[in-house]
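During the reporting period, our protein records have gained a structure token line. A sample record is set out beneath this paragraph:
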Amino acid sequence: MCLFLAVAPACAQQEESARANALYNAGKRIDALPLYEDLAKAHPDEWLYAERLADCLGARAVQATDPAEVKALRTRERDTARRAVELGDPNTFVQLMAGIDPTAPNEIAPASPGGALLQEGEKAFTAGDYPTALVRYAAAAQADPNLYVAPLFAGDTAYQQRDLKTAAKWFARAVSVNPNRETAYRYWGDALLRIGNDPDAAKPKFIDAIVAEPYNKLAWKGLQQWAQARKAVLLAPTIDRPAAPVVDPNKPNHTTIDIDPAATDEKKHPGASAWLMYSMARASYRSATFQKDFPGEKSYRHTLREEDAALAAVVAVLKERKIDPAKLDESLRNLVELSDAGMLDCWILISGADNGIAQDYDAYRQDHRQLLHSYVDRFVVHGGLN
């Protein structure tokens, strides 16, 4: 009798979990909501239940019409997602939920000709009615060809239906609307990886997401997941640069170059003295060249042109001295290899940028998208299953 009393609640919870899982996988998140309410309460340290409860709360918020109820549901969605992240949830969409602003306007209802259709599509999607959702999203895309999220959501809906061909068509359309947003590339890669079982085709899509938005952490999530699945390593080349020259605010023409003598000791580090050229080139650029190159900018900032000129000066010294690359340290070897590959600027922008340099990325990407892609593929991704 005691054994029966102990086992019965566990069996009931297993049945509830199975029913919740079946509803969730069928897209019936509204129906699954009360089940995940119970499961999350019974298992407060299980991130999967917190994740799914947050997602179901978000679906309920889409269906709600009262602004106060929507705000309350969005707040619970955010807080529950944050709890899932704290418990170790690795999924990207949960991190997005954890960062939502419950008071912000709904992004899926823009003031555009396709706005109402988009809302109808989202209501159908969150109710698990994927065929209707796809029709509404397609209509929204037709009504407003510049509405990025319409083809994006259409592709995601086809993905949920495991229709890779249709999903790819819509993701490609979203990319054509805005090739400089990472989301459609990442979703596309995910579809190829998960339902297409085609990691070779997924990899370039994930890299395209990074090229689109390299400073967005989400853009890297797809390639990170691909690397984990394929046993690859993501690691940019190391180039340890000297500290930037320091300008005295009270004496604008007075620049201090701080170089560690031990770091430029040629006996211990062949070629290391070439870093003196880096610091000198940066100091010279800031004092004499920046205003000429950027006459419209009111104050100095670190730029791609400055960093390229400074690193190129180091490479020029090493080339002139004909030092055996095998004798160079890792930073100098990487610097020379990137320069020889014509991808030094790619490293600067993707792997060595600061806030100043990042402002030059969009203009560079416009003419060098494929080169940036090749840089990530060749110098950042290492290994992987064949």
Q: What stands out?
A: The CA atoms of residues 155 and 167 lie 4 Å apart. The first helix runs from residue 2 to 25. The chain has a mean pLDDT of 89. The two ends are 56 Å apart (CA to CA).
